Amino acid sequence: MEAFTTHTGRSVPLRRSNVDTDQIIPAHWLKKVTRDGFEDGLFEAWRKDPQFVLNQEAYRGATVLVAGPDFGTGSSREHAVWALQNYGFKAVISSRFADIFRGNSLKNGLLTVVLPQETVERLQELAEADPAVEVTVDLVARKVLAPGVEADFALDENARWRLLEGLDDISLTLREESAIAGYEANRPSFKPRTVVA
Amino acid sequence: MGRTLAEKVWDDHVVRRAEGEPDLLFIDLHLLHEVTSPQAFDGLRKAGRQVRRTDLTIATEDHNTPTLDIDKPIADPVSRAQLETLRKNCAEFGVRLHPLGDVEQGVVHVVGPQLGLTQPGTTVVCGDSHTSTHGAFGALAFGIGTSQVEHVLATQTLPLAPFKTMAITVEGELPEGVTAKDLILAIIARIGTGGGQGYVLEYRGSAVEKLSMEARMTVCNMSIEAGARAGMIAPDETTFAYLRGRAHAPEGADWDDAVAYWRTLRTDDDAVFDAEVVIDAAELAPFVTWGTNPGQGAPLSAQVPDPASYEDASERFAAEKALEYMGLTAGQPLREIGVDTVFVGSCTNGRIEDLRSAASVLEGRSVADGVRMLVVPGSVRVALQAVDEGLDKVFTAAGAEWRHAGCSMCLGMNPDQLAPGERSASTSNRNFEGRQGKGGRTHLVSPQVAAATAVLGHLASPADLSDVAVSTPAGV
After folding, report:
1. Are A20 and B38 within 8 A, CB to CB?
2. What range(s) does the Aconitase A/isopropylmalate dehydratase small subunit swivel domain occupy (chain A) (predicted)?
3. 3-state DSSP assignment of residue B264
């Protein structure tokens, strides 16, 4: 995973609540067997509307998505995270994220930042007033900075450390081999097996 | 202090606990399908890793499979390539697979329980959010992303953040014609699509205890639609009776040991939930959705709500957007909404009791002119059972299409889709924009409401059919 320390870029205001992962990447894109090439599928249905915010020239190249509450609900598809990253987003800010989406994002180095709804709206207003305004998402200091905005955000220390270091979860877990083997040795025999010995 | 059911199952799976770190949990059962696994197997291959426990892993094909002409090569080359990738990966890594055409093939959340693999007190994961279904057995079951699929394949464990607990207590009797689907839709409308965020829900109370295993699966299945980490129901005699004799259920002394353990899996009397919701079963009615998220629902007898009635600005805006997308106007009676398509199936309502329920309403009646009705069994086993009971004949005699098992129109990945502007009554779980096909409009309903809607051509319950004569004797 790519490490995340701090990022500064322009932002896109997405004023919709309950943006589900079917909107982020529709199901027909899920037939692909790679982790890349999803950028054209990002918000595919909404992008057919020329007025949709991502279609506006002023927001081209923006890297921070500032979204409404309950972002990433629904399907567990990690493709939603890949699509956002493939398109160029480095961070998403919202007042609430669905659990599975949040987990997926942090495992891929896409920083999902939870801020109070009024701060999210303030950031959206800034980007609407001037799309050239830059936002800094600083994971080291756990702060979001923009003109007139300095907001602290929380992220559990373990997740933060993994992101800052760009650590691979599987390698970390494999260090626990003896604990896993010990647990396996004591599992009751009535537990189900998919293959009958 | 006592512990809740969820806390007990969690504690029994902790491989390693350390201050400031997420608990590392052992995973008892890992279910795989074609859509969320290819990148995970690729990751293993690149790192030179193996599947740690092939004996706790099983795969099936469901999301992408056609429901017609399954003996012919799959027409869409991209779909075909994805299924072939799963077959190649399972062969290379030694994972048991039930491919299209196999008697155990079906929707992953229907297959696990019917094989007896889903058991009380187990941890169950799958790269699919509806893994919450398995919580009906008192399992801690949740959907994961592809990175976590790879993690479980490699280590049979997952590091997991702590959760909160919420009791959803439903007391009393569900009125006639009110099903598990109506119950869960009403719960989601009550607590909202984000109401369960961070929580494991435990459904309890006399109304829940009276539900069959299949009805319990319907309830737990849609826990994710309330944003929950998982949903659970304490195992009881109904659970044990369902499991006994199934292919992978314990036998002999193991069965006795298992049941003795399973009986301990109840929330202690002095346990405290972080949140509680109480619902009176008697107040429930057939429930349908009008909007574009599963929380936007109302009793069938109600009208499309007026967005202006919402105090919260973002809810108001969401309701406006939903009515615009759905082509509905505030105040319109839900019963007057006409549909083009009716879909019966999915991991929510694709089991045998669901098909019986829909067939009992359709028997001797006909699907309305201009309405297309698809019946897609949740698994090949469910299909065989339905054929054995003659349900397929009831559906086809009524003018419905009897299809092969799979996820089908629930998510519109295979050719079973709505055309732009088409409207469905669907027994599935998500009414998101474009979920069942680009521009398609979805109303979530129970199997009974789906069948009655098919007959009348507009949203309806079986009680509305009293004027529609039954044209053939029962037992066709």
Report:
1. no
2. 1-118
3. coil
B438/A45 CB distance under 8 A = yes
User: What average pLDDT does range A3-22 have in this prediction?
Assistant: 96
CA distance B371 to chain A (A): 25
Structural contact between residues B219 and B184, judged by C-beta atoms closer than 8 angstroms: yes
Domains of chain A: 6-167 (3.20.19.10)
The architecture in CATH of the region B303-467 reads: 2-Layer Sandwich (3.30)
CATH of B5-275, one of 1.10.510.10, 3.90.190.20, 3.30.499.10, 3.40.50.2020: 3.30.499.10
* Tokens representing residue B152 in the block: 């479980």
**Who's near B283: CB < 8 A, 6+ residues apart?**
none
- Pick out the residues of the known binding site of B for [4Fe-4S] cluster: 347, 407, 410
pLDDT confidence of B312, banded at 50, 70, 90? confident
pLDDT band of residue B475 (cuts 50, 70, 90) is very low
In 3D space, the residue among B185, B161, B60, B182 whose CA is nearest the CA of residue B115 turns out to be B60
Tell me phi and psi for residue B91, to 5 degrees.
-65, -45
Sign of CA dihedral B84, B88, B89, B95: positive
Picking from B339, B323, B341, the residue whose alpha carbon sits closest to that of residue B331 is B323
Rg (CA), chain A: 19
- pLDDT given for residue B23 in this prediction: 97
CA distance B61 to B200: 28
Is residue B474 pLDDT above 60, yes or no? no
Mean per-residue pLDDT for A130-134? 98
Q: How does the average pLDDT of chain B come out, rounded?
A: 96
Set of chain B residues whose Cβ sits within 8 Å of the Cβ of A195: 54-55, 96
Q: What would the pLDDT profile of B314-330 be if each residue is shown by its tens digit? A: 889 999 999 999 999 99
Q: In this prediction, does ipTM exceed 0.90?
A: yes
Distance CA B120, CA B140 (A): 8
Mean pLDDT, all residues of chain A: 96
Of the candidates A70, A169, A191, the beta carbon closest to that of B194 is on A70
- Over residues B375-402, the mean pLDDT reads 98
Question: What residue in A sits closest to B411 (Cα-Cα)?
Answer: A27
Nearest CA-CA distance, residue A4 and chain B, Å: 17
SS3 of residue B289 by DSSP: strand
Strands across the sheet containing B140-143: B96-98, B57-60, B29-32, B123-126, B140-143
- Taking the C-alpha atoms of residue B442 and residue B162, their distance in angstroms, rounded to an integer, is 35
The pLDDT > 90 percentage for chain A reads 96
